Structure formats: C-alpha cells, structure tokens
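To whoever picks this up:

The parser on our side crashed when reading a file containing two proteins. I've narrowed it down to the boundary between the first structure block and the second sequence. Both blocks are reproduced below exactly, byte for byte. First block:
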Amino acid sequence: MTVTASARRKARHYAMQALYQWQIAGASLNTIEAEFHADNDMSKTDVEYFRDLFHGVAKNLDEVEAAYIPHLDRGVEELDPVSRALLRMASYELKSRIDVPYKVVINESVALAKKFGPTDAYKFINGILDKTAADLRAAEVAADRQQ
C-alpha cells in the first residue's frame, strides 16, 4: 500500500482513540490493537504508523509526557482524556518521527481535537504543541519562522 496523507490521518485517528481507550480501560496494548483491527476497516489506514504511534506512546510514556508537561497551565491529571491522548501522541510524533513536519503533527492534532475534544480544546492543544515543537524541533521551527 502506498502511504497517503489520508492513510496517515486515519492512523492518527485510530491511534488517538486507542490511546484514549488504553487510558480509560487500562486493557493491554495488544488487546486494544486487536479490537481495533476487528472493529474497524483498516484497509485505507497506514497500519504500521498506527502501531508505531500507539505502542510508541505507551513504551515511552515518561519521555513523551516530559516533552509537553512543562507547557501545561494545569496538572496533567486535570486534562480531559481526549486532550491527554492527543498531547501524548503528538509529542511522540514530534520526538520520534522527524520524517513528519512539525506543522503536520500540530495541524492533524488540532483537527482531531476539533472533532473529538471538548469545546475549544483545539486552541489549548495548538498552544501546547507549538511550544513543545519549539523545544523538540528548534532548528525546524526556527527555519520555518525565518521564511
């Protein structure tokens, strides 16, 4: 399968939902992943990317959270579950998937926050990820701002 933007978008969509479920239910990663494959049509999804995001966040949770927590104006436990899942996923992407431009990571996360998050959560997500990207991808952000 050729990896398309829409296949990546679907992968992020499902990964965010899987992370949400993992946070709420606490089931094993493999159980949740198997449910997603059984319950969803993954034929137009970048399944490898879904798996990387989902398992990558869980395996590197302390590092992932350390990337965005300094920018929060509240405790991480006060975040709604959708925002927490999105911040975790996007921080992982910013940290580990340098093949993906930081603007794509932020834009995709904002779009998911608009769709699934509480009212105006997308503004909060955008602000936190903008600061997180400046930390994790300083050269890329600086080059982008000079254009």
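<<boundary where parser fails>>
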Amino acid sequence: MKSLQKFASVHASLHNHFNSERHLVDRQTYKTRRSVALAEWQSLMA
C-alpha cells in the first residue's frame, strides 16, 4: 500500500506539471508550454 501511495503521489505531480489541457489552447501555445515544461523537468533532473 505504501508503494502505491508513493507512486500515486509522484504520478500526480508529473501529471499536473505536464497536463496543459490541449483542447483549450491553440497549437503554438501548447507547443510553447510543453517545451517550457520539458525544459524545467530536464533542469530538475540534471
């Protein structure tokens, strides 16, 4: 049960970071936000 809670916690953090509700924004805005999120994630993992 503890490992499930740990997984759910990490998954929720990642999902919130990368979820940008694609259907609500235009393509260019989506790509820009996605690139920024990926760059931030890469800097955190470095």
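After patching the parser it read the second block fine. The mean pLDDT is 82. The chain has two helices and no strands.
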